[in-house]
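mind reviewing this stuff:

——
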Amino acid sequence: MAKCSQTAREFIQNAFGPAVAVQCSPDAEQVCQKNNLSFVEMVRPFCKLTTEAHVRDPTNQVHVIHNLRIIMSEMDTQQPVPAMARKMLNDAVSNTQPQTVEGSRADFITVGEYNLQLNSSTPWFEAYRDTFLQVLPLSDHEYLRHLVACVCVVSSKHTDPMAEFTRLSQQQHELQHTSQAKYPKWFTPNTYKYYVLIHDVAEGDDSRAEEVFKGMKSSYGQNGCHLLKVNSRPLSSAKENSAGGPETMTGNLPDPWSQFLNKKDVEHDSPDSGQSGHSTENTDTFPDKVTETEPDQGVTVTPPPETNSVHDPPAEASSEEEQKEPEAEVISHPLEQSDDEPELSRSRAETEDSYNANSTDTMNQLNEAARRKGNVPHGLYLTLSDHDRLRIFAHEFAVRGLLPHIERTIRLLNEQLASRKGLHRSFFSATKKWFGGSKQAEKGSGVQTNNGGGIYSEASAEVQLRKLGDLCFLVQMYDLAYTSYHTAKRDYTNDHAWMHAAGSLEMAALSVFMQGSPQRQYPSHYMDSAIQMYNQTCKNPQFATRTTLLSTEILKSMSLLGDAAMQFIKMTSEDSDLRSALLLEQAAHCFTSMKMPMVRKYAFHMILAGHRFSKAGQRKHALRSYSQAMQIYKGKSWTLAEDHINFTIGRQSFNLKQLENAVSAFRHLLINESKQTPNQQTAFLREYLFVFKAITAKTRTSNGGMAEDGTDDEEHWLTTSVNEGTMVPGTLPQLPLPYIRSADTRVLLCQESQFPTTTGSRTRATSVSLEQPLDRPTLQKWIELEDLAVRVANDGSLPASYRPTVQCLGKCSNNSHRPVCVVGETLTVEVVFSNPLRIPLVLSDLLLIWRFVPIKYMGPGGEDKQHDMITNENIEPGKMSLAGEVLHTQVIKEFVLAAQETKPAQLILVPQQTGELRILGVAYSLGGGSSQHQHVSTSGIAGLHTPPPSPQTQPPSVVTQQPMLSPSPTVTPPGTSPLTSSSNQLVPPTTGSPKPPAKKPSYISSVYVRGKQELEIQGPRLNSTKQERCSTIYGSDRRLDPIVAPPMPLLEVSFLNFPTALLCGEVQQTLVEFTNTGKCVLHRLRVASSNPEFFSFGITQPEEQRTSKYIYKTLPLDGDECGKALSAKMCNVTNVIDVPLPDGTLAPGATACLPMWVRGVSTSGVHEIDFLFYYESLDKSPKMSHRVLHHTAVVQTSNSLCIRAEAQRSRLAQVSAHQDDTNCLVINLGMENLNQIHDSNITEFTILQVSAASPVWTLTPISTQCNIDMRINGKESILMCFKAQKLKTPCAEDEVVFTNIVYNKEQIDSSVTPCSDFYFRSLYVAPPRPSPSDPSPALEQPPDEAKVAEDQSKAELEAATKVQLSLMVIWKAFVVDDTGSHVITGQHHLTLDHLDKPASSLAEPEPVVEQPPITFTKQEETAVDQGAGDENLSQLVKYTVNHPKESKHTFSTDRLCVVGVTLVVHNCSGCELYIQVETDPTSQNGALMLKSPVHQPAISYLNTFTWISGAALGFTLAAGETRQLTMEACFCRPGVYNLSNINIFAGRGAGKGADVQVNLEELALQRQNAPSLMVVSNSG
């Protein structure tokens, strides 16, 4: 940590001391000026007492004062204006510099991997701190710096010293009491005066001085005056010392005034200051921005505007800069504010400008005075005895005069406060509470606008209390001072006098710290509150800065370095760059002084400090800050931070004439990878060249203008890299630039569509394109669809030689095998180039180099090599002609890479023969573009389908080149040298008279070289075996080694009128056009899709209906029938669908057009429908068994209808005439229009037909009649009821029966396309994905017989609630849009699987599963029964009670009425059941009811009766059997009785007949019926 020369206590004691005004007569000043000092300057080094002093408090206790410092100043001293104060602060910092950047006083610390070299001290911060306390303006809210006493000084040579003393005293009195001047400020009305008679020993009369001094003692008292003798050295001795020069003027005497006077850099006028590391010469030319000029003018630096008014640049620098006019501003500081800076910064800039304008003359005088005092000695006529006399004078004045006066004043203030205390508590407290105080602060808003002063009168108790505290603090009576401050703080806070409150909080905290008492803890929150009040409430950053300086010293002394750093950082702002820089630097040192040093925070804040030093014009400190921060950022991959630091170090070093450091810094900007903008990096390069020219100028001069090899040094350095890449005959050299990202190389095996994807009503299949990135999930999706298609084509298994077809090979694909392309089709290779330089690169005549082996494939495993290896890498003409016949290679005439640009180039090959191809790399001519063409338009970038602009209208920044993927790409044979044609001219099309050729914009420099770069792609790292995991082994990547296969069919698919927006369930018909553009016959065309329910090719539609203009086939109605039952074959839908081509084949060049129906997905939103078209060649190819075509359709669906249905069991179970009612179901169907009422596009939905599809049930209406109009408007819903009856004649296993309920004039045939197709597709469930590791069917183990029996038993029980019924709702809607009104149709499907389970066409939201509570003990796991659910077990049977509705009985004759009751029980399950009938709930089996979860009816009975027969019956029922039981009920009185209060238990029985074994605990209580009421009346 940078240590201060003073401790915190010493700093606080020196910061606050009694302020004394000095009033000197002219003759007294003349005596002092002989030593080039004023009286105040002469006595200032001796104003700190070296001995103890004593003072008594109001309780008469003696307090010892240590190291009392008296602050003397001229009485007429005015506060410096803000501009002068800034000048003084800047000079204090700039005149205090470190010895060296890497000096011997540096501390070395090691933190982790960092070895840091830090400054051991920061004297510039201490100088700033002391100067800041001197120039801090006075305020009325505190009295610490108000003048306590006045010293009147008169020379003994004066003609009438006593009269002069009187005049000076009256002048002080008038200045304090009658003058309207703002300064000086006095502590008390009766200022203590001390009179000093100064006597020149060398020239004055001693006797007269003694006589005058006696008169003074009689007039002012012995303790009120002093005789000061000075200038004891004779005049002749002083002249002899002055003859020896400035170094010997003072002889061997100490110079105690040097640390108190303003310093000036003595090296300013040094002749060799230009080479010195500490020189400040020419520092005013420090650039705020770097500007780019013409190439022959280098780089111009612009001085910052904030330093021009203070530091005037030398004439040489000004004249040199005037000759260079900047062209364009290209560099701005990375931390510089933007133009839209906050209003606070703008107001601060305006204030500084006004200060600079008003104080220019004052600062010029200050500079001139400082320049005159630069080499002038001080104290030339003072001896050591005079030094002692000055020290005695200060001691006598303090001990005999000043301290007794302060002691009396403290006693007087304490007595006044004590006398007011009782009165304040009684009368004034009451008046203040009820009527309000008379102080202005109590009426104010709490925001102080006049620096906090003037809101209290001098006679107020608050002012007296504050004065008492300040006096006690000045004389080190800290206990009494804290009491006063703490009391005043409460009053100020209540009065909302925030300036006074902040001052009291600040001084109260300082008093506690200076006490050093362990009983009272230091209140750091007082300081935080004071800083916040000063800075935010009072808007006074000066006093906030003082509080921060004091508080941070205390925190550092208490080892609270983190809190100190935060206070430093919070005090930084835009109103002072110098202050912010120093505080940020101190915060950085705090971070390194912690127990765990935080070096990165240190570096970051040092960067901020360096930036603020730079803005303040402190170049050396800025360079030092950046250099120290560079130790942390160097080599840590923080490129932007490192670039910023290196650039700033280089710029600062250049302005400080440290050229070696500048060259080293700028060099790092060029050799490291940078992320700066192109203009920034261009400026880096130009600055490096400019600095290099400056440093090599001396080298050329010292070496006679030549380098070591005899060439011009600068020219040799600039031309070193020009002659690289010399061409060797027969081969091409390897070029280092641009970089090629080999891993990003992509190979497209199929030809991209040469036409737009959508043209009018035609939509072409999207296929695979290089413009669309292919990620791993998308690639895996297409591979899975292809696997499904291949399995269907090969009877459910994958061939051993099968590999998925990947048409675009990249880093996401599996490249372990050689890809296969087709002869005569384009092969596109996308190579990604990256330019790491700061200038454009131009690649001309860019093409692929390859190696090809022609092979004729005879059949499976048969090959015939035709020629030796052919390559286009050789330059021999004979080989090139053969290469042009084998493989057509595209040549890009010009490919421009802008600075720091990464851009792909798409290079095309067209193989003309079968064989094995190996792509080796790329060949091109490399050159650099001119600086005026750095901004390159993307209109001519490779890979974009944009034709080159015409030569007449082409802007100079547009790159003209051949379009990469045109409908008929122009391929330049490799045999034609691209250098033979003119590359810098374009011939426009001839229209009329011929015109001279237009000149092409020049991008190719005069120096270029022909060369190549190889494409070497590293494969993936292997990690399958132990050896591969323990070592680094990479697999092979064969994406650049394609095999050219014989011709194959090539399919193109187009969709006509394909919808992009549908309603949910809407059905539309479109046409699909299949075209074979290949050279072979195509057959076995299939479509694989992840959404087969979306489309249908009309598999179940008759031939005569395919050309109908209607979507649905209609049938006539016979009379009033609702419709008849139609049967159709069950269709098993899979992901792969055969396309019904005519004759099953498609010849080369032939086109087939087929209808296709699409249906909107049931859920609204945007859906992507994937189509994979699989086809094979009629002629088997040895290298390619099939081909695929990808297409993704994007369809947006909107809400239409929502249907909900539920199946319930009919409660009728009659045995006689209505035997069929035992197998009836009641279907409740609800439909809701989900369209909003305000939607004007769709007015209403009309229900055309409700159909049921089931192999078991038929449907008949209950609630609604057939052939009526069923319409549903917006947000309306309807409810319909149907009865489902079992078929009288069971249908075949592979058939399904369609029952239609018609609400239209015509019946829609729901058993044919498209109605039945989409119904079968709605039942589709995606199968689990097959894995290659799954065993084949031949190797599967036989199923376990016990498990099979268990599953069968479970299925038999579930048959009681299984429904197997699907509903289809066919609707139409009227749509009004821009084209007019038209009708759309659609259908919704709903499948009912179980009884009493509602089903909906909309997906129900998943219920929120509550997390179980966290337990810390192990819970016992209960076995879960995997059998049939409780809901199924409670509906195994259904029963009903048949009885008369009313029975009349004469109870007067017969007291018991017996009525016969018939109980009908039907077995709904598929197995034999044991039935237990319980009529008495109190029996032993009645406990089973308590275990049953079935809901019991709320009314169990209305009256009491007794069953006299059939009270407890047990029997078995076969599957589907119905049994009728006769029972008798006995009633003893008239009433209404519920006879359905019977509990029936059912369960699976073991055995037959009388040997049935049943565990009664396994029986399940069946669901009870509704109450069955019977009225028993008395007929007597």
